[in-house]
Write a structure and sequence with these properties.
It is built from two helices and five strands, in the order βααββββ. A five-stranded antiparallel sheet has the order 1-5-4-3-2, covered by helices on one side. A hairpin with a 3-residue loop joins β2 and β3. By secondary structure, the chain is of the alpha+beta class.
Length: 114
C-alpha cells in the first residue's frame, strides 16, 4: 500500500519500524534528540545521511537554510531541498506516534533527483 501524504505520493517509500519510532518518541519525551520535533531538521539529517551514510562529522552536507517546507499541516510535512549536493529533491514526513506539537517527525518517503 502506497503512503499518501496529502495528495502526493513519494516515489521511494521508507518502511516504518513502529517499535523504533515508539522508542524514539519516548526518548524525545525524556528530553533527548529534540531536533526530531522539527521537520526541517529531520529532513536535513535524512538527506545528509544519504550523502554520507557512514555518518556526519562537522557540518551537515545539506544546509538547514536550503530546505523549504512546502506543506506542513501539523501531521504531514513535505520538504524540498534546494542544494546541488543532494540526491533527493523532496522528503515526505509524518507524525506517526503523536499528532501534536510533541510528536516526532518520521521520514516516510522521498523523491530522488531526476
Amino acid at each position: 500500500m502506497r503512503k499518501e501524504t496529502g495528495g502526493r505520493i513519494p516515489q521511494v517509500e521508507i518502511p516504518v519500524n513502529w517499535e523504533a519510532e515508539k522508542n524514539e518518541q519516548k526518548s524525545v519525551d525524556a528530553g533527548h534528540s529534540p531536533w526530531k520535533l522539527d521537520p526541517i531538521f529531520v529532513t536535513q539529517v535524512f538527506a545528509s545521511l544519504l550523502i554520507s551514510p557512514e555518518g556526519i562529522e562537522g557540518d551537515y552536507p545539506i544546509a538547514y537554510e536550503d530546505i523549504i517546507l512546502i506543506k506542513n499541516n501539523g501531521e504531514i510535512a513535505i520538504a524540498e531541498i534546494k542544494d546541488d549536493k543532494t540526491i533527493v529533491s523532496r522528503v515526505y514526513l509524518k507524525r506517526l506516534i503523536r499528532q501534536d506539537s510533541t510528536g516526532i517527525w518520521t521520514v516516510i518517503g522521498y523523491d530522488p533527483i531526476k
